[in-house]
Amino acid sequence: MTEAIAFLPPRQAVLSRRAEILDDLKELVPAGRLVEERNALVPFETDGFIAYRRRPLAVVLPETTAQVAAVMKYCHRYGIPVVPRGAGTSLSGGAIPQEDAVVLGLSAMTRIIEVDYANRCATVQAGVTNLAISDAVGADGYFYAPDPSSQLACTIGGNIAMNSGGAHCLKYGVTTNNLLGVKMVLVDGTVVDLGGKHLDAEGYDLLGLVCGSEGQLGIVTEATVRLLAKPEGARPVLFGFDSAEDAGSCVADVIGAGIIPVAIEFMDKPAIEICEAFAKAGYPLDVEALLIVEVEGSEAEMDAMLAAIVEIAKRHGVKIVRESQSANEAALIWKGRKSAFGATGRIADYICMDGTVPLSQLAYVLRKTSEIIDRYGLRVANVFHAGDGNMHPLILYNINDPEDAAKAEAAGMEILKLCVDAGGCLTGEHGVGIEKRDLMLHQFTQVDLDQQMAVRSAFDADWILNPSKVFPLEGRG
Amino acid sequence: MLTPSTETEAAELIRDHATRKTPLQIRGGGTRSGFGNAVSADAVLSSTAITGIIEYNPAEMVMTARAGTPVAEIEAALAENGQGMAFEPMDHRGAMGTSGTPTIGGLFAVNSSGPRRFTAGAARDHLLGVRFVNGAGDVVKAGGKVMKNVTGLDLVKLLAGSYGTMGFLTQVTFKVLPVPKTAATIVISGLEDENAMKALAAALSLSVEVSGAAHLPESVRGRFIGGKLPEGAATVMRLEGLEASVAVRAEKLMSAMAGLGPINRLDADDTKALWTEIRDVTPYGDGTARPLWRVSMPPSEAWKLVAGLRLRAGIDAYYDWQGGLVWMRMEADHEADVLRHGIRSLGGGHATLVRAAPEIRAKVPTFEPLSPAVALLSGRVRAKLDPHGIFNPGLMA
Ligand SMILES: Cc1cc2nc3c(=O)[nH]c(=O)nc-3n(C[C@H](O)[C@H](O)[C@@H](O)COP(=O)(O)OP(=O)(O)OC[C@H]3O[C@@H](n4cnc5c(N)ncnc54)[C@H](O)[C@@H]3O)c2cc1C
Ligand SMILES: Cc1cc2nc3c(=O)[nH]c(=O)nc-3n(C[C@H](O)[C@H](O)[C@H](O)COP(=O)(O)OP(=O)(O)OC[C@H]3O[C@@H](n4cnc5c(N)ncnc54)[C@H](O)[C@@H]3O)c2cc1C
What we know:
The complex is a heterodimer of chains A (477) and B (397).
Chain A: H1 12-15, H2 18-28, E1 34-35, H3 38-41, E2 58-60, H4 65-77, E3 82-85, E4 102-105, E5 112-116, E6 121-125, H5 130-138, E7 142-143, H6 156-162, H7 169-172, E8 179-185, E9 191-195, H8 206-210, E10 219-226, E11 228-229, E12 234-241, H9 244-256, E13 263-268, H10 269-279, E14 289-296, H11 299-315, E15 320-323, H12 327-338, H13 340-347, E16 349-352, E17 355-356, H14 362-375, E18 379-385, E19 390-391, E20 393-397, H15 402-421, H16 440-443, H17 446-459
Parallel strand pairs in A: 2-4, 3-4
Antiparallel strand pairs in A: 1-2, 5-6, 6-10, 7-11, 8-9, 8-10, 12-14, 12-15, 13-14, 13-18, 16-20, 17-19, 18-20
Helix pairs in contact in A: 9-11, 9-14, 10-12, 10-13, 14-15
Chain B: H1 7-20, E1 24-27, E2 43-46, E3 53-57, E4 62-66, H2 71-79, E5 83-84, H3 93-96, H4 104-109, H5 117-120, H6 123-126, E6 127-133, E7 139-143, H7 155-159, E8 168-175, E9 177-178, E10 182-189, H8 193-204, E11 210-216, H9 218-221, E12 234-241, H10 243-257, E13 263-266, H11 268-279, E14 292-296, H12 299-312, E15 315-320, E16 325-330, H13 336-345, E17 350-355, H14 358-363, H15 372-385
Parallel strand pairs in B: 1-2
Antiparallel strand pairs in B: 3-4, 4-8, 5-9, 6-7, 6-8, 10-12, 10-13, 11-12, 14-16, 14-17, 15-16
Helix pairs in contact in B: 8-12, 12-13
Domain FAD-binding PCMH-type (chain A): 52-230
Pfam families (chain A): FAD-oxidase_C (PF02913), FAD_binding_4 (PF01565)
InterPro entries (chain A): FAD-bd_oxidored_4_C, FAD-bd_PCMH, FAD-bd_PCMH-like_sf, FAD-bd_PCMH_sub2, FAD-linked_Oxase-like_C, FAD-linked_OxidoTrans_Type4, Oxid_FAD_bind_N, Vanillyl_alc_oxidase_C-sub2
């Protein structure tokens, strides 16, 4: 298939020394932690952005920070590109390597180092999965708040690199708001600690800068994250509307009224149909848009909050209000939403876009999105985090039809530009990766990007870390 | 004093200084003057003429304002819509003995956050986007105006808390939140520091959403809200929200804490007064220049530092943020070495010298010294934003 997105040309000097490099790397990690066989490298060729793939030079899977440091020191010395990798669930191609790169996988570093309830934090190795943290502390009444839909698989290192969020971030914030510190290996192998168990790291906020930097500033090997006490109870409610506009303005009014639910999820008709067919969650099929609003607290609090929300929904002509009456019903309501990606994947190939827009623009952007999709003769299902304006149009296409694939990609890019033009941005949680790299100039000026790239260079002067990503290849400083 | 009235004018002035490599002291309302390590600059560049709220849509919980806008003007506009800055920015004029009008740019430049910080996040967590002029005179935009944004490097975080050493902010966009409808405070009396910390940690493990958690030892208790707090050290916990929820949660919290000591409950008015005074360090706004330190440590460790210092030096201290933030006034010497050594030996954190006489400031670094590797990295980052080192040179060094 044709590839619209370019990679940097591989460094010949690196390719030609492959055998030697492998021998050297073997010395730096324990036996079995270097992957070099062609077939064994295949799983590392791509991530969740499967339209693109490249076979890396090699993969190392270190077990300790010291081994990571040794590998970095070596690669730095010989100018070998390094692509950090967690679980490889990136949807923007952030973990896709290139032929001259060593993939540095953190998946073997899965130890929970310390759980500290007195300070409500946990220190874990970078390869620990997001859900494993909540699982480890759940029985004691705590949880780790950011909840990407991929939380079963994705690692905390990947979450930090992408500043991931999920449905409940409306109340609890995204990764950067829940991160206290990291241990990180710099490009030359130096190990630094940023932050710790205290609030507000000393000096400049390098921790804030590292979060969301997509593996370009260093390799995170350990993280200290905040733990929160679980709420007393949580209750999701389904609201069905006759139009996306009504649902959108209902969201804006709930928030305008000073009510912050923990989650507000939106689904349009195609998404409702797809999810219902798969999850049998009992979603209404005769509505145009559906909201899942979840509130938390004691029974009394939830009652009070829901009463206020229902009142607002009525003003916007809500057609169906379904409160969950049991834990089972609550789980079912979420099951439909959470299976959206999987359920869509069963009926068609799709690309999942990820732009954000100001809440007041939601209805407008939805309307424009369907115009764009119609123009390309494609189909789209919309599911997203409405409370914070993070849209996820799923564009359906046929991956075996190159023309269809090209159309889907082009439509997706138009939608992202639309988000930016409406006052939003290119990505709310999936990152820029390679996918949106060439759109960066739509959101930023060259001067803005030059400043970002200069800061990147302060960490990695030779651009060895994840070099094909985030910044357009042309005009790099 | 240079007071450009537009961003373009500011950029021209800065470019001109960059060409000549002449340093500039960056200022907002100057309410923090005297804070930080000494700056030697030829001129002062102030944001006070770059003012005005540009965009405010309450339903989106986002505001955009020019950097020199007085914080009071912002707060008034928010209050009209029942909203506020959830991180509770403090007014430190009392503690610093300064006057002037705090600006919104200055607030984010110092990443100023109060009691709700440990649940609501710091100022920087609420800052969504900025426009600034870098040290080469380029106008740079970073971030955006939506809650979720991971497009490119997060320079917004870098600018927040950089004390005017990375760029001259001209515009800030930040998240605002509904002001809680009501609030109450539970006061447990008579706890020693160590037990107070255990009580606070226990309270925070409950699902009652404590949004303020402080301990006021007996030495300072009487200096809050006109001496109205009950006898003995006061361990205070704030609850906020709808009337009904606060009532339910207060009951629950009080029964969980029963047996630790006498328990009282403050009403909404006293709650507001108390937490404003905790936030603004009112007891130490005593018109003196006695050294005032602000220490951030793991909540389980900070009281040990205080206990150790009490044995060796004359100090007065109280705790916020579940015990993780210590406001500490030195009765005689500044005790920088003992203090910073203590922090390191207890597992890390940092101390900032908020106030001191000029002769002490001259020899004690305001900010916690960084590890050599981090200091090197920070220097490289700063050089990318301010290549000629013309912004507030020395202030954070
Ligand atoms: C020691 C100390 C500790 C404090 N701690 C807290 C705290 O913990 N919590 C809290 O809420 N508040 C705190 N404050 C209060 C906070 O600093 C003020 O409320 C803030 O708004 C300052 O505004 P200003 O305009 O007076 O700033 P100024 O005093 O004029 O400047 C403050 C700093 O910000 C920089 N600055 C000002 N404007 C700009 C700009 N446009 N662009 C770039 N840099 C700029 C200056 O160079 C200077 O370094 C503290 C103040 C001091 C002095
Ligand atoms: C079905 C599905 C649903 C998803 N839902 C969400 C969602 O709701 N919210 C959301 O935010 N994302 C979501 N994602 C995207 C993805 O899961 C996140 O971006 C996640 O954080 C990636 O983690 P990972 O461990 O898989 O990282 P990878 O995909 O392996 O890597 C992602 C990026 O992080 C870098 N990286 C990884 N580990 C490190 C490290 N230790 N140090 C430095 N850099 C590192 C890589 O170089 C790469 O740039 C979803 C993905 C899928 C497949």
